[in-house]
Amino acid sequence: MKFQELTSKHWAQVKNIYEQGIATGNATFQTASPSWEEWDSSHVKTSRIVVTENDEVLGWAAITPVSGRCVYAGVGEVSVYVAANAQGRGLGKALLQELIKQSEADGFWTLTAGIFPENKGSLKIHEKAGFKILGIRERIGKMNGKWRDTVLLERRSEVVGKD
Length: 163
What we know:
Layout: E1 2-5, H1 11-24, H2 36-42, E2 49-53, E3 56-65, E4 75-82, H3 91-105, E5 110-115, H4 120-128, E6 132-143, E7 146-156
């Protein structure tokens, strides 16, 4: 098992894993995966990771900016996805830890996450990685005609942004 930079060559497998997450109904508000070009333009160009085994992508993690304003350049929202056939092996935790490490090397001082309350596994790995629950964003969006809440989490770096 090894970590690599997520690039366009991984997209077909990354997209498949993302679609598995979409199908659960508890990973994202998205209802369809974007094209590589859309995904690439909406995510930070650094801190993009896949975890592979025998050239198979088992999971991925990346950051989207929370704002286009320069004062928030070190604040990002994390995404972590693990293939259905690789869950339960600690890959989500490992990906998130690697994403934190890379994001700090890239100057991020705050990472956020918005997670459906039903996604207990994701909440657990984020809390173990130092994310704190800030609150519940009630009725933040509709999904299939039904209002959904998200748990808002935040992690402040112990390395970046201390001055």
